[in-house]
Amino acid sequence: MKTIIQNTLIIPMDTNAPRTLHGDILIQGDRIIGVGGPYHPEEGDLVIDGSRCAALPGLINAHTHLAMTLLRNCADDMDLFTWLHEHIWPREAKLTEDHILWGSYLGLLELIRSGTTVFADMYFHQQQTIEAVLASGLSASIGATMFGDKLATQQRLPALRDLWGSFHGAGDGRIMIDAAPHAVYTCTQETLQTARDLAEEYSCSFHIHISESRKENSDCLSEHGKTPTEYLDSLNAFSVPVYAAHCVHLSDRDIDIFKRRNAGIVHNPTSNLKLANGFAPVHRFIQEGLNVGLGTDGASSNNNLNMMEEMHITSLLQKACTEDPRVMEAYQVLETATIGGARVLGRDHDVGTLEAGKRADIILVDTDVPHLHPLNNPISAMVYSAQSSDITTVISSGRIVMENRRIVTLDEEKILHEALRCAQQL
Amino acid sequence: MKTIIQNTLIIPMDTNAPRTLHGDILIQGDRIIGVGGPYHPEEGDLVIDGSRCAALPGLINAHTHLAMTLLRNCADDMDLFTWLHEHIWPREAKLTEDHILWGSYLGLLELIRSGTTVFADMYFHQQQTIEAVLASGLSASIGATMFGDKLATQQRLPALRDLWGSFHGAGDGRIMIDAAPHAVYTCTQETLQTARDLAEEYSCSFHIHISESRKENSDCLSEHGKTPTEYLDSLNAFSVPVYAAHCVHLSDRDIDIFKRRNAGIVHNPTSNLKLANGFAPVHRFIQEGLNVGLGTDGASSNNNLNMMEEMHITSLLQKACTEDPRVMEAYQVLETATIGGARVLGRDHDVGTLEAGKRADIILVDTDVPHLHPLNNPISAMVYSAQSSDITTVISSGRIVMENRRIVTLDEEKILHEALRCAQQL
User: Fold this and answer.
1) Which chain A residue lies closest to B272 (C-alpha atoms)?
2) pLDDT tops 80 at residue A80
3) Are A207 and A141 in contact, with CB atoms under 8 Å apart?
């Protein structure tokens, strides 16, 4: 099966290609086999008209808690302690497999509509999330979530090993399982070390929250005499590929550890602002050569999963924080949301750019809308002006997931109904 | 002619009403005559189904430069000096009445699609903008823009007086003309004083940029020994109703002047971040009891006119800057975009809330979308989760401007075509 996207404005995000070109994209099976063209319409079993559109790599949401969509807008404008103890944790304690399944489906609808084709998740009842991801057509790095002490981890271990055994590489490589200890303040040393060992054993990554808040840092310094990054390094955690969410408060020495260990950072600007954790120095991370991806965090601390909005906010914050309007130009931002996220998740051989050989993860953005007129610089337009609603078509691993704003892999009406039923039980 | 919006979730923004209620809204002519209902369908010549929607007051964009839509995405990621001297001013020098007309129409399409029914503008060839606003059905406070020295102002004066004479109160009060000296650094003392005198003569407001950048403040201190606010106060400018855009860098004494003079502040968060001017202390302004509205600034320094995005960013920034996630709660943000903006523009007797007697400026937000499921707190949902594309229907002064996402007062296709033609000439 061959598909041609014809006559479109291509933004390939490939350092070996121009930043923009006009032409066609040729897809065979789940792979891109040609970018630029022209390709003869007869070469394609399916021809998609890409005129009046921009074609970009599918966006990569490198840190979320997908099923937390069920807790959207249930607790806002409050401090972290009240938020967690009085609102989030009591509701999370009630979460069943049924809730996670429909919360995941709900999140997937939103990811698709906002152009995300790959995401990294950290939550519970992962088999339900995986079931929903496989049905959706998207790809995901699913966290084998760990927290608590040695006993808790030992009890959890058979189920986690079963995740790797049953699903690591499932869906022709769409699903990957990563070791995901929650954070240094919720995991004991034994749990963190077990997570590291599992990441080594299964040749996967280690997904964790690091230095989200000042309190996390000061508590870790009190308890271990080290920053969270130093503490994890002392446990040899960085000997496996690490990607860390937030990283709002990294010291110079922490940044050096990330550099030496080639670890990835996931920037979560909306969440960091909403919970008043601060401004991550993303411009500096990029200048230092670190791998930076972008994520929405969960819908409960955001309150949406809109990567277009995260991109715009990322650029704006770095300009204001550095007091230099030239930094974090649009192209760099778009990198964090595509190839940057791919590098962070260890998927850059497979996704993140539009180039021959890569997985056909492609989104079409309708440029024929008032707020994209005149288009002028298309890169600026995508990052500063475009809205998630401009995304009309999403192709994931060569499969059409959304076409002209209609999701074709999932039953949207049923999902909204079931998700609402689940949310009402929480 | 009576219209009923039936069976909807009403967010009236009226301190005498609950924050949300379910029911109907009754409109007669250009006015709201009842909120809550129920009203019998036979009472209405037209009945709009408001189920699965939230009804809010039309949003108020209290500071923009509408026709700058033509310069969208033409110059980004650069310092203010390069941006102005090499990109914006050379293009602005070419602007003709034809450009302003179609640039204004283009901006109006975007305002309507993002739920704005009233805006304050400061630009050139205002008659073209007024022509477009009148055709659109929206309301606008149009700046009689002034800059330069006494001679420049004297030369401009007949045309400005003609604006007041021909258009102040036009469209049954939809159009108001405000005196709009650009800023203290672009206007001489005589020009600022003339603007003040004109505001007094025509009983209108005085619209100006104040303390947008640190440089504006330091230059003003060097030249006049006063901050821009103190300098304007020394010219007695605050003896007329003032609304000032940006106000990023106000001193304690400046804030006192705003308080004593009951002057309004227009917050422009995206523009202030993009141009690296900083973070306006909006939470403090509100705590001090100042009138605060919200604006997008021009599309060239934003790069869109999306008030839903400005609302979200406003809340996020205040939480992060104060390091307190409880501040600038969603309801306060929604106030800045509705009744707050109305107060700033001196229109709060007429617009800004859904209550009987006010102009029927109403937007319907489709809540039946994945990113508004579950809705939970509808106020949070509007500010933190909703997208401009969720706005389906816009009523302005009782007239349907957009219905089910189709703009009915303007020819969208023609406008996009003509605006593109104009942009290509710049």
Assistant:
1) A320
2) no
3) yes
Q: What is the DSSP letter of A187?
A: B
Question: Of B114, B276, B316, which has the smallest distance from its Cβ to A270's Cβ?
Answer: B316
Helix (H, G, I), strand (E, B), or coil: what is residue B217?
helix
Q: Which residue of B has its CA nearest to A324?
A: B276
pTM, full prediction: 0.97
Grouping H, G, I as helix, E, B as strand and the rest as coil, residue B394 is strand
The pLDDT of A133-159, averaged and rounded, is 97
Cβ separation of A325 and B384 shorter than 8 Å? Answer: no
**Percent of chain B with pLDDT strictly greater than 90:** 96
Residues of A in contact with B423 (CB under 8 A): 373-374, 376
Interface A-B, measured as beta-carbon pairs within 8 A, has a size of 207
Instruction: Judge: B385–A113 Cβ closer than 8 Å, yes or no.
Output: no
Which phi-psi region, left, alpha or beta, contains residue A203 (left: φ > 0; alpha: ψ -120 to 50)? left
Q: How far is CA B389 from CA A388, A389, B331, B404, in A?
A: 9, 6, 21, 11
Min distance A172 CA to chain B CA atoms (Å): 28
The enclosing H or E element of B129 equals helix B126-136
Three-class secondary structure of residue A226 per DSSP:
coil
Q: Which of B313, B242, B325 is nearest to B280 (CA)?
A: B313
What residue type is assigned to position B345 of the chain? L
Q: Looking at chain A, which residues constitute the CATH 2.30.40.10 domain(s)?
A: 2-57+353-407
The rounded distance, in Å, linking the Cα atoms of A419 and B9 is 20
Q: Give me the sign of the Cα torsion angle A232, A234, A238, A239.
A: negative
Whether residue A312 and residue B312 make contact (CB cut-off 8 A), yes or no, is no
- CA-closest candidate to residue A266, choices A406, A141, A97: A141
Percent of chain B with pLDDT over 70: 100
Model confidence over B202-233: pLDDT tens digits? 999 999 999 999 999 999 999 999 999 999 99
- The whole-angstrom distance between B197's CA and the closest CA on chain A is 37
CA distance readout (Å), A286 to A154, A247, A272, A328: 38, 13, 18, 9
Dig out the tokens for A306 from the structure: 């809109």
Residue to substitute from A373, A402, A416, A418, interface B, most B β-carbons within 10 A = A373
Task: Determine the distance from the C-alpha atom of residue A189 to the mean position of all C-alpha atoms in its chain, rounded to a whole number.
Answer: 27
Specify the amino acid at residue A307. Answer: M
Amino acid (one-letter) located at A276: A
For the segment A348-356, the average pLDDT, to the nearest whole number, is 98
Separation of alpha carbons A247 and A267, rounded Å: 7
Question: Under CATH, which architecture does the B2-57+353-407 domain have?
Answer: Roll (2.30)
CA atoms within 13 A on the CB side of A291: 24
**Which of B415, B306, B401 minimizes the C-alpha distance to B70?**
B415
Residues of chain B with CATH 3.20.20.140: 59-344
Judge contact between B116 and B58, C-beta under 8 A: yes
Q: What chain B residue is nearest to A301 in terms of C-alpha separation? A: B384
Assess whether pLDDT exceeds 90 at residue A81: no
Nearest CA in chain A to B411: A370
Average pLDDT, chain B: 97
User: Using a CB-CB distance cutoff of 8 angstroms, which residues of chain A are in contact with residue B385?
Assistant: 72-73, 299, 303-304
A387 closest CB neighbour out of B69, B270, B388: B388
pLDDT digits (tens, 9 = 90+) for A88-108: 989 999 999 999 999 999 999
Q: A293, A59 in Cβ contact below 8 A?
A: no
The answer to whether the Cβ–Cβ distance between A377 and B76 falls below 8 Å is yes
pLDDT score of B421 more than 80? yes
What the block records as the tokens of A378 is: 């298309």
Give the class (CATH, top level) of A59-344: alpha beta
Per cent of chain A over pLDDT 90 is: 96
pLDDT given at position A82: 87
The pLDDT value given to residue A327: 96
